[in-house]
Target: Transcriptional regulator, MerR family protein
Amino acid sequence: MIPLYLKLGLTTDQIRVLLRGEVASPDAYEYCEEMLSFYEAKLNNVDSQIAHCMN
Model:
């Protein structure tokens, strides 16, 4: 899973946060508008890459 995250352009710090989410409860996180925007941009990038591969 980590190599995939690296290929998607995530940094090791970003991956660490994602992996922590696999073992932490949702209550362990605070809502952060800045991070939401960041991950929405990452999601849009991944969606674009997938769309490019599908064509």
